[in-house]
Design brief:
Helix content: 40-55%
CATH topology: Rossmann fold
CATH class: Alpha Beta
Number of domains: 1
Radius of gyration: 17 Å
Order of helices and strands: EEEHEHEHEHHHEHEHH
Strand order of the largest sheet: 1-2-4-3-5-6-7-8
Distance between the termini: 29 Å
Number of helices: 9
Length: 239
C-alpha cells in the first residue's frame, strides 16, 4: 500500500484515517492485512498504521540472518513512526506483535501514548522455559526453510526466538494506559495475558468470548468495541 525506506530496508505499511495515531503489529507468519478490520472500524476517529515485519508480507527480506532480531524490529517501529512524522502513538500488537510492542514501550517510553497487547506473552524469566520456547521456534524455522521460505525462517530464529528476560522484567516500569486483550479459547496465552495485566500498573484485561489466538479476526465486533472503548477513554494527546 505504501513503502518507507528505513534502516536499510523498505517497509510495507498501510496508513488510514486521522487523529491520534495507532500503530499495530501483526503476529508470527501473519501480515499487516490481519489488521484490515481495525482500519475499517477505527479510521473515522483514529489514524491507524499497520505494517509488515521483516521477512513477512511485502517488507524487504534480507538474505543475511543477522538482519532479523528483536532490537532491529524495535528500531523499525521507531523509524517508521519517524518516517510518518509521528512523535507519540498508541502502540499495539498481536502475539509476536504484542511482544514487539512491549519491547518498544520499554525502549522508547517517550514515544508512548498507550499500549495494547493482544493474545501475547511477556517472554520468560526462567532459562529452561526460554530454551524450550526457542527449541520449538528453531524446529519451526527448520520446517519453513525446508519449504523454501527462508525469510520466514530467518524471522523465526531472529525475532520469535528469545534471548533474555528484559521484557518480562520491565513490565512494572510501563507507565502508560495499557489494554490487554485475550480470547477465552486462546488457552496457551490466557495466563501470560493475565500476568501482563497484573504486572503493568493500572492495566486493563479484557477477555473476548468465543475467540482464539487471533481475537481481532475471530470476534471482530467484540474486539473492536473493547478497543474503541479503551481508545476513547484515553486523555487528550500530549502536545
Amino acid at each position: 500500500m505504501a513503502r518507507a525506506r528505513v534502516n536499510g530496508i523498505e517497509i510495507d505499511y498501510h496508513d488510514t484515517g486521522r487523529g491520534r495515531p495507532i500503530l499495530l503489529t501483526h503476529g508470527h507468519l501473519s501480515g499487516r492485512r490481519a489488521w484490515d478490520g481495525q482500519h475499517r472500524a477505527l479510521a473515522d476517529r483514529y489514524r491507524v498504521i499497520s505494517w509488515d515485519l521483516r521477512g513477512h508480507g511485502q517488507t524487504d527480506t534480507p538474505d543475511d540472518p543477522a538482519q532479523y532480531s528483536l532490537e532491529l524490529t524495535v528500531a523499525d517501529v521507531r523509524a517508521l513512526l519517524g518516517h510518518l512524522g509521528i512523535e507519540r502513538a498508541v502502540i499495539g500488537g498481536l502475539s509476536l506483535g504484542g511482544y514487539v510492542s512491549l519491547a518498544f514501550s520499554l525502549a522508547h517510553p517517550e514515544m508512548m501514548e498507550a499500549l495494547v497487547i493482544c493474545d501475547s506473552g511477556p517472554g520468560y524469566r526462567n532459562a529452561q522455559a526460554r530454551q524450550q520456547w526457542n527449541e520449538r521456534a528453531f524446529a519451526r524455522a527448520a520446517e519453513l526453510e525446508a519449504q523454501g521460505r527462508r525469510s520466514l525462517a530467518h524471522a523465526t530464529r531472529g525475532i520469535l526466538a528469545q534471548q533474555g528476560s528484559t521484557v518480562i522484567d520491565g513490565l512494572p516500569s510501563i507507565a502508560v494506559p495499557t489494554l490487554v486483550i485475550v480470547g477465552d479459547q486462546d488457552t496457551p496465552f490466557l495466563a501470560p495475558c493475565e500476568y501482563i495485566a497484573k504486572k503493568i500498573p493500572g492495566a486493563r484485561l479484557e477477555t473476548i468470548a468465543g475467540a482464539g489466538h487471533s481475537s481481532n479476526l475471530d470476534q471482530p465486533d467484540r474486539f473492536n468495541r473493547v478497543l474503541l472503548e479503551f481508545l476513547d477513554s484515553l486523555p487528550p494527546a500530549k502536545e
